[in-house]
Structures are given as structure tokens and as C-alpha cells.
From TrEMBL:
Source organism: Gordonia rubripertincta NBRC 101908
Highest taxon of the lineage: Bacteria
InterPro entries: Flavodoxin/NO_synth (IPR008254), Flavodoxin_dom (IPR026816), Flavoprotein-like_sf (IPR029039)
Listed name of the protein: Flavodoxin-like domain-containing protein
Span of domain Flavodoxin-like: 7-180
Gene3D superfamilies xrefs: 3.40.50.360
């Protein structure tokens, strides 16, 4: 159980969807008894090293071009080099484990053929990754540039919010239960 543990939820968000998921995760961890600090990795300056020393660390990022945002990648590198405690990671993109705003056929293909983002793979290689979860986010018309919008439509994409809040809360409860 996470009770009485200091937990940091660090995230990098491009349009706010990942931030809202991080907020929901933090709320669930607090409900499970953790003391939680939210850390916006896209805010001015890198987070201090105290985030690395938290009892538990949850780190997540929006996915752009198949990888975490640069701020999250830099923090994940620090984590993979300096952290020995448990880490849970989440990625937010077009396709989540349980939801998507792409066609079901395209989502199924991507789920089975998309590798872990390199930042998550580095944490996994260090041996401290407890779990990684992919969540679908929300997307508006202006989020993808010209050709990307065409590709998005060809993949059966529909604009809107595809976040599966039940899945997010279920994964958060798993963190509380796994609390290590």
C-alpha cells in the first residue's frame, strides 16, 4: 500500500490532455493514502533531484512522433541513471490500451506493432519500471500539422476526447496496491 509514502507524479503535456491524466492519477494516489507532488516537466527549468528521491515515482508524457516529449525524455534519462526505487510510467497518444480515436483496425495494428518509447525502455532496462500503461488522449483539429491531419483522417481518426477514465483509475489503483 502507498500509505505514508511520498510520491511524485511527473508529466510532460503538449495540449493539456496528459496533464489532466496526471492530475487524475495524483488524486487517486492521494485517495490511497500517498502524499503526492505533481511535477510539470515542461515548466521552466528541470525538476530538482528531490523528485528522484521520492518513495514512488510516476512519470508520463504525451507521445509526439513516436516518442516522449523532450522534457520527459531528459527526466527519464535522469531516472534511468540515478534512481533505484520503483517507477510507473504512462504514455498518452492516439492509441491507448483500451481506447483510441483511430479506427479499431488501425488501433489494433498499432497496439501490436508500436515499441515502447525509448525513454520508457531505458527505465525498464534499469530494472526499476513496475508498469507502463498507454492511454489515448484528446485531440483537436489544430494539433497535427497539414500532412498529419490527412494521415490522421486516412487512419480513421476522429477528433475529440478518447481518454478512458475508468482505465486510468484502474491503473492508479494497481499502483496503490503494488506500492512496494
Amino acid at each position: 500500500m502507498v500509505t505514508a509514502k511520498r510520491t511524485v507524479v511527473a508529466y510532460a503535456s503538449a495540449h493539456g490532455s496528459t496533464e489532466e491524466i496526471a492530475d487524475r492519477i495524483a488524486d487517486g494516489l492521494r485517495a490511497g493514502g500517498a502524499t503526492v507532488q505533481l511535477c510539470d516537466l515542461t515548466a521552466a527549468g528541470p525538476p530538482d533531484h528531490t523528485a528522484l528521491g521520492a518513495d514512488h515515482l510516476v512519470i508520463g508524457s504525451a507521445i509526439h512522433n513516436g516518442q516522449w516529449l523532450p522534457e520527459a525524455e531528459r527526466f527519464a534519462e535522469m531516472v534511468s541513471n540515478e534512481r533505484d526505487g520503483p517507477v510507473w510510467a504512462f504514455s498518452v497518444s492516439s492509441v491507448g490500451a483500451t481506447s483510441t480515436f483511430l479506427s479499431p483496425r488501425m488501433a489494433g495494428f498499432l497496439r501490436s506493432h508500436t515499441p515502447l518509447p525509448r525513454a520508457v525502455a531505458a527505465i525498464e532496462e534499469k530494472g526499476v519500471l513496475r508498469s507502463h500503461r498507454a492511454f489515448a488522449g484528446a485531440i483537436g483539429k489544430g494539433y497535427w500539422p497539414g500532412f498529419g491531419r490527412i494521415l490522421f483522417r486516412l487512419m480513421g481518426g476522429r477528433y475529440g476526447d478518447a481518454r478512458d477514465w475508468d482505465d486510468i483509475e484502474h491503473w492508479t489503483r494497481q499502483i496503490v496496491d503494488d506500492g512496494g
